[in-house]
Amino acid sequence: MDTKKHYKLYKSGKQWKTAALTAVAVVAGLVATNVTANADTTASTDNNTVASSSVTTTVSSATSASSVTLQTSTSSQGTSLSVAASSSSVVVSSSTAASSATTGWQETSTGYTYYNEDGTTTEGRAYSYLPTIGSTDSSSYNWYLTDNGNVLSGIQEWAGSYWDFDTDTYTLHTQDDYVQSQWGEWYKIGSNGQVQSGVQQWAGTYYYFDPTTYLRVDNDYRQSQWGNWYLFGDDGKIETGVQQWAGTYYYFDPTTYLRVDNDYRQSQWGDWYMFGSDGRIVSGLYDWMGSTYYFDPSTYLKVTNTSFTVNGATYTADANGVVTSDATTTAVAKAMTALGIPYVWGGNTTAGFDCSGLVQWAYGLSSAYRTTYTQQTLGTHVYSNVSAAPYGALLFFGSDSAPYHVAISLGDGTYINAPEPGDVVKINSQKYFAPSYYVVIGQ
Q1: Which residues constitute the signal peptide according to the record (predicted)?
Q2: How many Å apart are CA 348 and CA 266, to the nearest integer?
Q3: In terms of Cα–Cα distance, which of 71, 113, 73 is closest to 90?
């Protein structure tokens, strides 16, 4: 077989060099074929190998009806040539397997990986300004979070917090949103892409997200990041109006969402309720705005236009619900205000009381009824079932003619009295010191 060598000058840098190209004639009648090729190095023609960089050269033949295609595949041992028939031209192709390093974004089965200029990836997590993934504009850049070069998406931990990265663009999700993570949980995302906690506004209301888990909190009373407390319902929404919580009811202002204390408020269904100093709904007797009211223990509604009994005492509520009491109830209530005042022999003022002095002061008795002996004449003596003496009855200890102590019944087996020197006005039980009989004043 004949072998022909053609030499051509080419320029590498500032020096002219000579290259040799070896062509193999494989088709009979191939004539007058001019072959031009560029190469970076000059190599021996032994064994039909050429040391070449990655180039593709098309060689046109103007005089032959057939052509030869030369495909060059460069390995570390050299360049081998394969020959095949073609219709119009000769093409020399070469691809370097161990030449320049892989750089930039490379698509993988799980996403994209970024390779630095030296072909390496950045170790660990990094938030970097890199060419935009999928863009043909070389001037387009975006910020990406990578882990050993692999771009990340979804909820990711970075710089001591958590952030959401778009699953399509891999860029930070910079708008208020409520998104589902790659593991199925839902999180509130702020306009800076950060996962939020505490009280957050979303979809026309407010929610609370746990500072540890970042998950929405349902049916709980929580303290906000600014210190105030709020109630959140079964659907996580902040609550207003009358709400049941921890075995009772509270009222939360529709404007501030804060718990309301010591106020009379209208519920979302129209009824009015009283809430005490601890925010709890009120039942029973309650002083409000200079008057006393009574709230039904079952319905919590204010009682009007009726008389009722509480612990043996009789009260009347007018059309506005203002409560007044009968003389007995008023007297007992007055006596209760003296609790803790010291015992003073012969005393009948708030500076000190003895037993009969407390009764005289509470009931407003005249001086004719200053002593225990005279007070036992105010009504009929009752000796049976003394432990069930009615509310406000006077309890006597001793004989009919010479009782030595008097107390005021509270209607439940207890009584208020001024016991003895060195003691104070207090409540005692008939279980430990039982009276002999009782008197209901005026009966």
Answers
A1: 1-39
A2: 45
A3: 71
